[in-house]
Amino acid sequence: MPSLKKAYEWLTDAYSQCLQVVALNLSQAYQNFFEKRARLPRFKSKHGKQSISYPANVKFEGDYLKLLGKVRLVYCVRHREFAGTIKTVTISKNPDGKYYASILVDDGLDSLETSTDGKAIGIDLGLNHFAITSNGSKYDNPRHLAKHQRNLKRKQQKLSRKKKGSNNRQKARGKVAKVHSKISRCREDFLHKLSRKIVNENHVIAVENLNVKAMVRNHNLAKAISDCSWGMFCTMLKYKAEWQGKTYIEFLTPQTVK
User: Fold this and answer.
1) Does the keyword DNA-binding apply (predicted)?
2) What is the CATH number of the domain that holds 192?
3) What's the pTM?
């Protein structure tokens, strides 16, 4: 790392431990590739995802988050309190210009043992209804993208008419990003609430393992399928079930195998 700092002076602007985290992440990425758990790591554009991780010595001082390095105190709004020791803080910048801090905390509690005792439920995911459960409950597909499609189209048309490289184009791009951010937040809010409800009410949760990559090849349904975010929903069900010591199962149907 010292030799890289001499070659690229701008690296000295970042806190040293943050740079070490990047090196560790790169090492882990190559390890995942060689063990055939992931693809070969690729270079990332500076215009892509913007984030930085602080691996230690981060704490709260009132309404401020104290970071090491040149940043120091940063005002923040905490959406909820937590108990435990802060391990890692990742600061990320969304395309709409807002900054978020993701905090990894060690609460000192042992993980619960998985149990299969209790109420079981099966879930069928779809487009007309987002989910239909084995007990007959139906949850409508909120179609977040369709609800905001008109506003998004209008903003994108205004963006296309702006001169490339101008300040007005940059402002228009920010407005488009805000619409996308709103759609994303609405989608995640729906998925979090539904997954929490299902996990709280059941002990064994079975979900069909859908081959989404193959399904989105149908260009007539690709946008609707992507808007559903079935994969994100299943991920939420899985980790919330694990938190509460409940069982999450994915199963294959004959249609899925095909």
Assistant:
1) yes
2) 3.30.420
3) 0.78
Sequence-separated (6 or more) residues with CB below 8 Å from residue 139: 129, 130, 131, 132, 194
Report the number of distinct structural domains present in the chain: 2
End-to-end CA, the chain:
49
Rounded to the nearest 10°, the torsion over CA 210, 211, 217, 221 is: 0
Over 90: is that where the pLDDT of 196 sits?
yes
65 and 100 together in one domain: yes
Indicate whether 165 belongs to any domain. Answer: no
pLDDT at residue 253, as a whole number? 65
pLDDT tens-digit series, residues 171-185? 999 899 999 989 999
Residues 131 and 253 reside in one and the same domain: yes
Phi-psi region of 22 (alpha: psi -120 to 50; beta: other; left: phi over 0): alpha
202-212 pLDDT per residue, tens: 989 999 888 77
The answer to whether 222 and 228 have CB atoms below 8 angstroms apart is no
Residue 136 carries which DSSP code?
S
How big is the chain, counted in residues? Answer: 258
Range of the domain at 78: 2-106
**Is 30 within a domain?**
yes
> Do the domain assignments include residue 61?
yes
Q: Do 70 and 13 touch, CB atoms closer than 8 A?
A: yes
Residue 26: inside a domain: yes
